[in-house]
Specification:
Oligomer: homodimer
Helix content of chain A: 25-40%
Radius of gyration of chain A: 21 Å
Largest interface: A-B, 104 and 104 residues
Largest sheet of chain A: 7 strands, mixed
Strand order of the largest sheet of chain A: 4-10-9-8-7-5-6
Number of domains of chain A: 2
Number of helices of chain A: 12
Mean pLDDT of chain A: 96
Order of helices and strands of chain A: HEEEHHEHEEHEHEHEEHHHEEHEEEH
Low-confidence stretches of chain A: none
Shape of chain A: globular
Number of strands of chain A: 15
């Protein structure tokens, strides 16, 4: 282990973070389970990339079969990308019916911002102050936490608005958030930059997945449209039926975006990503920009992505996400009745968690406690994480085949760990 | 076929280019061969991504075995990425000993420019006027041909110098090119932008792979270093032993770059890419920028990439590239003795071609003729393309297991096609 960490430091450089104080050396995965090099088994309550389960046989066999047959670029005709894009766009509402395939969600968001520029002739982008949309030079500036000194001065085009927070900020209908977006748009206009797009994760997952009633995003979307800008929904995390009630989280939020970006779960870990948009936006982008992605939409990536769609449908994983989200909320609410340290319980289908506070009145974040809980859970064989502005909210976001027996194990273990962990050291 | 083209137009949008006037519908690949939906076989003299051959069994089995075992991100410890980076960096000269893994060459180049910014505090980049380095918002501006109106105004940081052209421009030792780079640097300094890096493909492949003696790039590298900038070699096309004499083309060019980017052939079509650099550059970048790539360096990508390295070594594909390049040069020279339309013959290992001209004195490009030859070759079952500033140079860049029997078939067919194709219509 020490040897691995030292080799990693030398070969990959410093500051390549690992999860946990005592990093895990994972060697095998299957369904919702992971195994480390010592043969210890972990219940995976964290990873959303292996969406239909680690090493899902349907996805693995689709990859193997296509890799044996052909893997090439999209400058030859191939049925795979057409069949996939047809099936993918069928999950969207009209007029979202055309797609670009890339390898990473970062690449998809990078294109989306250029599409907004091409459509509006402007460059100003509004995002929240606790989000993440990827790692290219341009989109890295959408994260307020990224150092602005490296990145070609593109931070000047971004405006960050206060992220929604249903536990601490009163905003039942999304009007307060919309007003913040409006202010940011006015600031962009006043500065001469102009407004091109609002980009958000419809579940605000990095922000701590606030509890919001259906349609909460409509006022902000209206504000963006009235100002002549686009609405980009980054569904890299929230998409592919995770929210349970809908296939795409923007549908739950009552909006039809101009562009929807997707990535992580799309190929169950195979590097495939993309975006779906309207014909007029695609046409404007394709006419003003010569875009080609060597690996994007290759037959193997399309086969992997197709198998994921099939698996979601065949196993009815959307219904499972809805059911498990509700059960998780019940179980977490039971824990909240038992432990004062739980200030709030939230869920959006197969994403759920609890916010830890030192005091329910002051809502002072129990960030250190959250950290200790996560590390203790890891040593009890349960993998999960934390997120939100205060890093005090449990981030529980398992593969979609997560069932009741897994939820029981998770919640029973969490109960036991919380019982033995002091809130203050 | 018409149906496929119409579906493609509707699902993927306009201007998604295909090769050939009469696009090919490829369904199967094996080694240096491709098959279309009608069962016709093509000798692949074009594709460099399936580096060790289409559907190479070693690579396919490595992908399948690892996909069945585990595919996850690099925030857990995993031996795969360490073993791969160790073996990869061993092919480089000191002090190039540390790596970042990404999914595409575009992502690698996008990082390289930020590394140059982090090291120099400047943003000015020098590239040639006939190159291509990828598709992110930032690196797309390295292509002079990309429309500047979409791309966040980043074109202002780029300076494009006249690409080397051994057939038309006298520059035996690279001093003329170095002087052009010097001028561009001075222009960047005078404009207040400052100079961060020179980025080139060491074989100048998009520019038409000019004939250059070993060490030709040294003067330009010296100029860049004296000005305090970095030398970035984009070996996305030229790397992994293609040039035959060396594993990396920059070694043939007599330089040790600060950063080397790689991509296309790295995983034989699996979306894996990356860069190799020095420890101090990695440290500066990692300290000033929080970079994480979800799919980058995952166990399956590393297994694919490792199998490619093993296959190059076991099959001695570097020696094959050297031998085949020399034989190709002989065969193309024979054709040049027979056909006046061949103005120049060039090769850099497993990349070779001939430049077509209407007149050997005026060197007027025979671009239309090149186009007709390529389309005629496609109908004779040989896949190749054209490149260079005038699009009049045959681009022959087959998978590395290309052998003498394949070369014979290619050259005999080319001879026959040239014999029946009028130079002027």
């Amino acid at each position: 282990m020490t040897d691995l960490i030292a080799r990693r430091r030398q070969l990959l450089g410093p500051n390549v973070s690992t999860f946990y104080k005592d990093p895990v050396h994972i060697v095998k995965g299957e369904g919702v389970w992971l195994w480390d090099a010592g043969g210890n088994r972990y219940l995976d309550c964290y990873n959303n990339v292996p969406h239909v389960g680690h090493c899902n046989p349907r996805v693995v066999e689709a990859i193997c079969a296509q890799a044996r047959e052909l893997n090439t670029h999209t400058r030859y005709l191939h049925q795979g990308i057409l069949d996939y894009v047809e099936r993918l766009t069928a999950t969207f509402d009209e007029p979202l019916n055309t797609a670009i395939m890339t390898c990473t969600g970062s690449e998809a968001n990078d294109i989306a911002l250029r599409m907004a520029e091409a459509m509006t002739g402007k460059r100003g982008i509004v995002a929240t102050d606790a989000t993440y949309h990827g790692n290219t030079t341009l989109v890295s500036h959408l994260s307020k936490s990224n150092a602005p000194e490296v990145g070609y001065g593109l931070g000047g085009y971004m405006r960050h608005v206060e992220a929604p927070d249903s536990y601490r900020i009163e905003d039942p209908d999304g009007h307060r958030f919309a007003a913040k977006v409006q202010e940011a748009i006015e600031d962009l206009e006043a500065s001469g930059i102009g407004f091109a797009a609002l980009i958000v994760c419809p579940l605000f997952l990095n922000e701590g997945f606030p509890s919001q009633k259906d349609g909460w995003l409509q006022p902000a979307a209206d504000v963006a449209r009235r100002a002549g800008g686009l609405l980009i929904c980054d569904e890299v995390q929230s998409g592919f039926a995770r929210c349970g009630s809908h296939f795409w989280a923007h549908q739950k939020q009552g909006v039809v975006p101009d562009i929807v970006c997707m990535g992580k779960p799309m190929g169950n870990g195979h590097p495939v990503a993309g975006l779906v948009t309207k014909a007029d936006i695609m046409e404007r982008f394709r006419s003003s920009f010569r875009y080609f992605n060597t690996f994007g939409g290759n037959p193997v990536s399309c086969a992997a992505a197709m198998a994921v769609l099939e698996e979601i449908e065949d196993k009815d994983l959307q219904a499972n996400a809805l059911k498990m989200g509700r059960l998780a909320h019940e179980r977490l609410s039971d824990l909240a009745a038992k432990y004062d340290v739980i200030g709030d319980v939230r869920q959006s289908g197969m994403v759920f968690g609890a916010e830890y506070v030192l005091d329910r009145d002051t809502k002072e974040p129990a960030s250190d406690y959250a950290d200790r809980i996560i590390n203790a859970m890891r040593h009890r064989g349960i993998i999960l994480s934390k997120l939100g502005r205060h890093k005090n909210t449990l981030k529980i976001r398992p593969p979609m085949p997560f069932g009741e027996e897994h939820l029981d194990l998770l919640m029973d273990t969490l109960d036991a760990v919380m019982a033995e962990t002091p809130v203050r050291l």
